[in-house]
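Figure S7 source data.
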Amino acid sequence: MKLKLGFVQTNPSFGNKEKNVEEAINLSRKIGGDLMVFPELFNTGYAFISKKEIDYLAEEVPDGYTTIKLMEHSREANKTIVAGLAERFNDKIFNSAVVVSNGQFIGVYRKVHLFYKEKLWFSVGNIGFRVFDLGHFKLGVMICFDWFFPESARVLALEGADVIAHPSNLVLPGLCQKAMLIRSLENKVFIITANRTGTEFRGGERFNYIGRSQITSPSMKVLASAEEDEVIAKVVDVDISEARDKNITKFNHAIQDRKVEFYGKLVMP
Ligand code: ACM
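Tokens for the predicted acetamide complex:
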């Protein structure tokens, strides 16, 4: 099964939701693609400075402004989109990513590993790692700092993900991009890291986002990448069957060769 995987790398202007959503959708519209991944918190920007601010900018899913716009675009362009936003659910706010496809709301992932001051604004994701069956392929989702914990990608691969969408707002230079090559190889999956670029100076702190979005393959290749400061969308053709073949050699299999009887510590607190 051939598929066009892509990312949109933007430079959101803080709080300027309509402009940010329109820019990302325009980039996606121009480039095409079957699956497009947008950055983490792509509609609002990242560096919140108060509970009041995030409460104002967070949205219900799927009935909020951003998810509705994404659904419209996915219908008109006949594609699947994964995009990060602040989600209000009951009395909690989550750092979430929505999945929409051909005009339908497919589901949401709520970030599990919160980074730095996200711990002040967001609740820890309460629904675990999720894999969505899109017919032609299975899609796992994780968000930015989830990359630091190899268990995130591993659980998604064990749940059957062929492709992992990874909306991000990376700030630690160059580390994640290298790690994702290994995550792709060891799990034999495609990974789309859609990062943002630009700088935010808020609450006395400066956040430099490192761009360099990329798509990596099960054979540890970088199939597409962006520069640090580009606002750009890219797509690449892949064959999903590459992610279904988990053989390493004639005698080795990436999943079946695990020796889980020796891994007990991995699931201990
Ligand atoms: C991050 O998780 N946004 C670094």
